Amino acid sequence: MSTSTPTAMKEGLQCCEACGLLSHPASGAEEGRCPRCDEELVFRKKDSLQRTIAYLVAASICYIPANFLPVMTTITSAGRESDTIMQGVVLLWSPTGWPLSLIVLFASIMIPSAKIAGLLYLVISVKRGSIRNNIQKNRLYRMIDIIGRWSMVDVFVDTFTVALIQLQPLMSVEPGPGLLFFAAVVVFTMMAVDSFDPRLIWDSASSTETEKEVQHA
Amino acid sequence: MPDKDKSFPKVPSSKVVVKKRMRIPLVWIIPFVAAIAGVWVAVTHILSKGPEITIVFLSADGLEANKTKINYNGLNMGVLKTISLSEDRKSIIATAQMSPDAAEILVKDTKFWIVRPRISGLNVSGLSTLISGNYIGMQLGRSEEKEFSFVALETPPLTGDVPGRVFTLKTPALGSLDVGVPVFFRQLQAGQVLSYELDKGGEFLNVKIFVQSPYDGYVNADTRFWQASGIDVSLTASGIHVKTESMMSILAGGVAFETPDNDPILPPSAAETTFELFGDRTEAFKPPVCEPYDYLLVFKQSVRGLNVGAPVQFYGITIGEVTSISTELDVKTLEGSVHVTICLDPKRYGVKFMDVAEGKDAKDFHRKIIETLVSRGMRAELDMANLLTGSLLVSLGFYPDAPAVVLDWSQDPLQLPTVLDKLASLEDSVEILVKNMNQTVVGARSTISNADKLLDSANQLIEPNSVMSSELNNMLKQGSGAARALRVLADYLERHPEALIRGKTGE
């Protein structure tokens, strides 16, 4: 690369996140607003990494009770039976029901943990200023963003089941405390994704490029 | 204001340090709250954990780790956590996580057992376990001492905390009894059979029953217990009587008890008192043993139809029963005889005449009575009890003409004199009668055949084509001709009376 990649920040310009309009930042301490769409303008999301880390920590804390507490309590005439997510997976596992079991396993156990791990990796690599596999990192970020909300499926299924299966004397289903924590995990990871600024991935890349260019010069 | 530089040239000027604001973003409240929530959940989880106990089972049949619950009166008190084989491989050791409320009730005599569906006769219990799976039942102990390891019972304790008393019944055979079979008092369920075991001697069974309050108050020394499983059908002159306890006891068996209204009413029996269990009600109300007076009767005739237990009657009223029958062969005379032992129970059958004296001089009094009765001609004999079945009974009757007998009081039991019974003599005479009748019948038969012949010949005589009848016909014809001639003669004589003298003149 012969010329350094220009970024809006380097050029002292702000890019509107909503409409993409480039503008000169407002003078003064106050943050300016997009002259076109009135969106608040920042160079980079405020405290992006810290916020992301905070949400990730909250999500990981909630992840423990989400998996250890029952998410659903089935009350039948035979008694009450509380199941955690993992027990549900085991319960669903049968010669014919294994795809369903796998869906629950992926959506409820793998994806939340993968999201946390993935975001953590992004945060760490940004902090360390690593520029390797930046394209993959960006792809990872997009994937986490898209796939993240699907973990909420479990919560929806649970709430639907609880609402629908209320055959009082025969059978009823109650939500377990684990469900609340699970929902919290999903919400916190989504917020972490939202607070992470993917442009940070490229900032160090462009700065190292600049350094290289400086050295070249 | 003096110039700084000039007045104090050596004093350094203050440094301007840009304050680094320690900015902790508000967002960190979120993980903090999450952590607090997590810790709170963990703490409540730990606090909600009660004590852990171990229970030793003989078999892990129907037990499941993390599934099998421990219930007390239907209230969940804990759940089995692990199930493993004991070191000696003879039993199953299960650990259970109890709820915190259970901590108080885990004492030394707290009992645990596996609740399984039990169907014995009509008694069905633990049916809910068919759906919910087996669970572990629990019964509270009364001890104050804490205990965290228990040995499970094989069968559920039946008494529970119901007030009542346990009694032991001795029976030679179990019959249709089983654990949990009901105990009836006036056809009300008053308790149930707890357990049974063979006595050490192996001769009878000890059946433990539980009679709940208030029925246990009716159990006293006079109380009789009997197996209430059967149907008691008796055919009497007034019809068929069917006596049963409830339908349930017919199918599943049961124990019934009754206390006769004796005066005075005895105080209730203490718990663990042993009673005898009778086969049926009739047997139960026979007094246990008729020990008072045993007598030996020697019959030199067949006693076919006489059974042990056959009644001994006096004036047609039962006053005792036959207790044993055996044949004896006299070695010297080679004469067979039947020895029948009877016993008379004055108390039971109300033999008033034997019941006068009690205590010391009872024996002498008894001897006096028997001597008197025998000298008056009292003899034992066999009598027909039932014409249909041919069963016999022993009857004591008076034969003043019978030869006098000297009683041998050194014998035990005392031998009472017997007479050949009316029946045997009746049989003999009937036999002779039948023989005579036979002869008579033979004679009668020849008479009948003679009469037959007579009638036959008579028949021949009067048949229409017989010689006799034709002759008779001729005779009658001739008779009528004679009569006609006579009439003609008479007519002629009327008109010619002179003809008598002159004779007939020609016309």
Summarize the entry for a quick read:
The complex is a heterodimer of chains A (217) and B (507). By secondary structure, chain A is of the alpha+beta class. Chain A folds into two domains: 1-43, no CATH class; 45-216, Butyryl-CoA Dehydrogenase, subunit A, domain 3, CATH 1.20.140.
Largest sheet of chain A: 4 strands, antiparallel
Structural class of chain B: alpha/beta
Counting copies of identical and different chains, the oligomeric state is heterodimer
Task: Please report the distance between the alpha carbons of the first and last residues of chain B.
Answer: 241 Å
Low-confidence stretches of chain B: none
Proportion of helical residues of chain A = 55-70%
Mean pLDDT, all residues of chain B: 80
N to C succession of SSEs of chain A: EEHEEHHHHEEHH
> Major sheet of chain B: order of its strands?
5-8-2-3-4-1-9
Strand content of chain B: 25-35%
Number of domains of chain A: 2
| Share in β-strands of chain A | 5-15%
Q: Given the structure, what is the number of helices of chain A?
A: 7
Given helix and strand content, the structural type of chain A is: alpha+beta
Q: Choose one word for the global shape of chain B.
A: elongated
Main sheet summary of chain B: 7 strands, mixed
How do the strands of the widest beta sheet of chain A line up side by side? 4-3-6-5
Number of β-strand runs of chain B: 25
Describe the structure.
The complex is a heterodimer of chains A (217) and B (507). Helix content of chain A is 58%, strand content 10%. In chain A, a hairpin with a 6-residue loop joins strand 1 and strand 2. The two termini of chain A are 13 Å apart. In chain A, helix 1 runs antiparallel to helix 6 and helix 2 packs across helix 3. Chain A is an alpha+beta fold and 217 residues long. Chain A folds into 2 domains: 43 residues, no CATH class; 172 residues, Butyryl-CoA Dehydrogenase, subunit A, domain 3 (Up-down Bundle), CATH 1.20.140. Chain B has 507 residues and is α/β, with parallel strands linked by helices. The longest helix of chain B is centred in the last third of the chain and has 40 residues. The radius of gyration of chain B is 53 Å and the shape is elongated. The model of chain B has no long low-confidence stretch (mean pLDDT 80).
